[in-house]
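call fold target=NADPH-dependent FMN reductase-like domain-containing protein
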Amino acid sequence: MKTKTLALLGSNSIHSINKQLLNSILRFDEAKNIDNIAIQNIDLPIYSIDIEKNEGFPETLKELHQTISNYNSYLIVSNEHNRTVSAFFKNILDWISRIDFDTFKDKNILIITASTGRMGGKAANDYLHTYFSRMQARRITTVTFPSFNDNFDTANGQILQPDLEKQIKEALLSFRADE
């Protein structure tokens, strides 16, 4: 099992503010301990028990699960749609839990949600915290990134608020502390 962290983006939008934030966060990783895979390019049908029973698990899911299983910590950067995670990311999580319910058991998770609103995707953050708690993650650390348009320089891909940047950097250091 790798001691590196795997970054997962919870948005499949090509204009995702969360993708911009993730790219900025990856620049903090001077030791190159975070791998990033483009799950937004994975083609999965909407989860259905009928598909699972009649067709089995899609090959793309098996490959994704194999990749995810090789890590013991995860950086999740996710958006918020209608006070929850996007249907895209929820579908990924649904499929992963069906192929192996224990995928995230005893793993460390850092959840960062961003939105243009002042709550910073708190509802999606809370949803993901509850989800990974039920999946028996070992340690879950959360950060919300509010008012993205005011706190992020999209032209330069940089966090503008020193307090937000500090909070994210501290979370990156602390969530893997027991590895």
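return ok
Residues 87-99 form the longest helix (13 residues). The mean pLDDT is 93.
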